[in-house]
UniProtKB/TrEMBL annotation:
GO MF: G-protein alpha-subunit binding; guanyl-nucleotide exchange factor activity
Lineage: Eukaryota, Fungi, Dikarya, Ascomycota, Pezizomycotina
Listed GO biological process terms: G protein-coupled receptor signaling pathway
Organism: Aspergillus tanneri
Name recorded for this polypeptide: Uncharacterized protein
Pfam families (alphabetical): Ric8 (PF10165)
Length: 323
């Protein structure tokens, strides 16, 4: 089927956009009445068409950009189902992930559909609520495919967001002070759930979460380490092929950390279990932090001196007085 011909000469884009507009009117602000089965099937098929054409023919995706405001309108008004990444809601999110939300090739939107003036955070809030519920309901293997469009959409939205929604997204998606009462990644907050998922053996999920955290940190390795701790940051940076400090000691020296926060685990020092033994030296603290990070699965980087000793690459030097 020649979709380019259908769009350019047979008004496929205009007809599809009209159908999305028509369906959006079926979702009132209050008294949400479910679509009839026939209407839901029709909307689902239209969304599938947008997704498939935009995915297979990215140059044609601009034809469906006028549907973006109405897709957001439906998402904002639809109830989150028990399985948030299945059914109609999943098709809506899939479409967002393939469309140019900035609409660079089309006529500029009169008002931003991503950040409406009446509430700039409403769309962001809804999508993050969906993500929060999904990370609790689905297994990592399911999220490996189902969550990727949502994560990609959040990344794209953040990069287009003005300062207010950006800070709101950072507040919802990055660890906050309450998370630091224990090592980051061990609470039940969304940021902790995402970081735990980033250690699961699923490449697409790990990459998408890594990209989200990196983007929320201004695409800056130092900010990322400050936000999520060296343990998680080391793994995420390594997955991007970026240079990371090789040891905990080097990380301490290289990064500007909050002195009240353990840079390895991200936990506040005052919330850590107190040691009643003699005080440790700075070097002992670094080794202990590195040991704990490895024990928690946060760090998989070997101290080069330790590694050299284990491999027999270091030899004892003769005493200078034994000539």
């Amino acid at each position: 089927m020649d979709f380019e011909d259908l769009i350019n000469n047979h008004s496929l884009g205009e007809n599809v956009n009209y159908q999305i507009f028509r369906h959006a009117k079926q979702f009132p602000k209050s008294g949400k009445k479910p679509l009839s089965q026939m209407d839901e099937l029709a909307l689902t098929d239209t969304l599938k068409l947008i997704f498939n054409v935009s995915k297979l023919y990215p140059d044609l995706a601009a034809a469906f950009a006028p549907s973006i405001p109405y897709i957001f309108k439906i998402i904002s008004r639809i109830d989150i189902p028990e399985k948030p990444l299945d059914g109609l809601l999943s098709y809506l999110i899939n479409c967002l992930s393939t469309l140019d939300l900035e609409n660079k090739k089309g006529k500029p939107f009169e008002n931003s559909p991503l950040f409406p003036t009446f509430n700039q955070n409403c769309n962001v809030d809804k999508l993050i609520n969906i993500l929060d519920q999904a990370t609790s309901l689905y297994s990592p293997s399911d999220l490996e495919t189902k969550a990727i469009p949502l994560l990609h959409s959040l990344i794209a939205i953040y990069e287009l967001a003005p300062d207010g929604p950006r800070k709101y997204m950072e507040w919802l998606l990055l660890p906050e002070d309450n998370d630091r009462s224990r090592p980051i990644g061990q609470s039940d907050t969304l940021s902790s759930k995402l970081l735990k998922l980033s250690t699961a053996p699923y490449a697409n999920l790990k990459t998408a979460i890594c990209e989200l955290m990196f983007t929320l940190s201004g695409k800056n390795a130092e900010n990322l380490t400050k936000n999520i701790g060296y343990g998680f940051a080391a793994g995420l940076l390594a997955s991007r092929g970026m240079e990371i400090p090789q040891t905990a000691g080097e990380a301490f020296a290289a990064e500007k950390f909050d002195p009240e926060v353990n840079p390895i685990t991200g936990q506040r020092w005052d919330a850590e279990k107190q040691d009643t033994g003699p005080p440790m030296t700075k070097e002992e603290k670094e080794r202990e932090a590195e040991r704990l990070a490895k024990a928690n699965g946060l760090l998989n980087v070997e101290n080069p001196v330790t590694q050299a000793l284990q491999e027999g690459r270091l030899q004892e030097l003769p005493d200078s007085d034994s000539d």
